[in-house]
């Protein structure tokens, strides 16, 4: 009965990846065409995360009251409209196209925030067992969307030319329009009745809930920090062109990220969720340390890529763990989870970048790296500080396992 709903959710997570990652692939083009600065394109990323956080929190109560269908359809419409404005920003805002980029970012980021909130709600409401494995497969489609967006956009830029970037965005806008009509038709399981729903006050007073929110925040920081810096690491340590850095660094990272989610989903609960997450977090600690401290640039890059395997379950696992522990929480739970994950995703890469700027020689305390210049050591120093994210995740997961009595 819900087979088409599952397919629509898979495509929705694919579109979420596209909404989060398409514009950053064109930042260099925007800077060249519109004469904007690094700070201005960085502001677009900040707008993306802030808008997603605010959207998730604002729409939780309306979702509980009116159901998920109107808002998941709205999510697709907002991504579609945002992409249209992005593509025609020069024509719509001839006096200052950068304002068009900001408006477009806010609009499609509202859609992304609704995706973060609603896809898990719709998917986890579908009757059936093995929620852990099913949700892991759902989240693997974010990784597949990430890979396809990077590869296809890179190829289209090569074929059509950078000057035709608006046409590339219009091509991608077909997907949210198509899935908009999907979600108008597919069956959606009923939400939890209001009188049975766990109240928000009860959630925030729970120590376990606090652990879950902290966990998804550092889990998001672990995953997104490495994914955002891997391409730059490939360029700065190996001297690869940006296109190769994107295809080798970003795509292999995302491939392992998606593979870990898909494989865990295919094994259908053969391994305990918290145990698998703990193992993944420990692997990420090792990867961050090796990326920062290995004398070999190739080994450091391999560690960045391998981190995708370890971080794959940290975000979706946190969602499933919270849903299992608070099964009657409703949309408020998923709103706070999305907000927590996005806060970590925003703060983590920023902290690594700040460290690279203010303490670029931190890793030179290791004797075998003392020969590096400040520019060569900068991103490694950021990675060293980034080790704190998966390390904190390990301690949080151990506390959760103790609270669960296992």
Largest sheet: none
Give the overall average pLDDT.
Answer: 86
β content, as a range?
Answer: under 5%
Overall tally of structural domains: 2
* Gyration radius over CA: 21 Å
- Based on secondary structure, the structural category is mainly alpha
Number of helices: 19
- Distance between the first and last residues' Cα: 36 Å
Would you kindly provide a written description of the structure presented here, covering whatever features stand out?
The protein is mostly helical and 406 residues long. It folds into two domains: 1-191, Growth Hormone, Chain: A; 199-406, Up-down Bundle (Growth Hormone, Chain: A), CATH 1.20.1250.20. Helices cover 80% and strands 0% of the residues. Helix 1 crosses helix 8 (131-160), helix 8 runs antiparallel to helix 16 (314-325) and helix 12 (207-238) runs antiparallel to helix 16. It starts with a helix and ends with a helix. The relative contact order is 0.13. The model has no long low-confidence stretch (mean pLDDT 86).
In short:
It is built from 19 helices and no strands. With 406 residues, the protein is mainly α. It folds into two domains: 1-191, MFS general substrate transporter like domains (Growth Hormone, Chain: A); 199-406, Growth Hormone, Chain: A.
């Amino acid at each position: 009965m819900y087979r088409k709903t599952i397919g629509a959710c898979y495509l929705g997570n694919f579109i979420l990846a596209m909404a989060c990652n398409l514009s950053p692939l064109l930042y260099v083009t925007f800077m060249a065409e519109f004469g904007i600065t690094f700070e201005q394109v960085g502001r677009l990323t900040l707008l993306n995360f802030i808008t997603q956080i605010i959207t998730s929190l604002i729409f939780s109560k309306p979702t509980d009251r009116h159901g998920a269908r109107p808002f998941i359809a709205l999510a697709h419409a907002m991504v579609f409209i945002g992409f249209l404005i992005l593509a025609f920003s020069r024509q719509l805002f001839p006096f200052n196209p950068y304002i068009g980029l900001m408006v477009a970012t806010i609009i499609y980021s509202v859609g992304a925030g609704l995706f973060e909130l609603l896809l898990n709600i719709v998917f986890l409401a579908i009757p059936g067992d093995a929620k852990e494995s099913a949700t892991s497969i759902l989240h693997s489609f974010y990784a597949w969307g990430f890979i396809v967006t990077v590869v296809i956009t890179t190829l289209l830029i090569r074929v059509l030319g950078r000057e035709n970037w608006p046409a590339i965005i219009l091509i991608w806008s077909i997907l949210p329009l198509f899935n908009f009509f999907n979600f108008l038709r597919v069956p959606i399981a009923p939400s939890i009745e209001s009188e049975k729903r766990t109240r928000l006050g009860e959630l925030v007073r729970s120590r376990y809930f606090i652990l879950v929110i902290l966990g998804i925040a550092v889990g998001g920081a672990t995953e997104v920090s490495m994914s955002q810096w891997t391409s730059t690491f490939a360029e700065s340590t190996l001297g690869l062109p940006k296109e190769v850095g994107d295809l080798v660094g970003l795509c292999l990272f995302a491939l392992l990220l998606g593979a870990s989610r898909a494989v865990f989903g295919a094994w259908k609960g053969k391994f305990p969720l918290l145990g698998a997450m703990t193992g993944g977090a420990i692997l990420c600690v090792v990867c961050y340390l090796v990326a920062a401290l290995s004398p070999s640039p190739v080994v450091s890059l391999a560690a960045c890529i391998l981190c995708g395997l370890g971080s794959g379950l940290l975000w979706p696992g946190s969602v499933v763990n919270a849903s299992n522990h608070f099964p009657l929480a409703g949309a408020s739970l998923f709103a706070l989870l999305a907000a927590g994950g996005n806060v970590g995703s925003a703060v983590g890469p920023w902290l690594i970048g700040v460290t690279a700027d203010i303490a670029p020689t931190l890793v030179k305390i290791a004797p075998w790296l003392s020969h590096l210049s400040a520019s060569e050591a900068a991103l490694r120093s950021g990675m060293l500080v980034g080790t704190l994210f998966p390390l904190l995740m390990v301690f949080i997961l151990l506390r959760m396992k103790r609270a669960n009595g296992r």
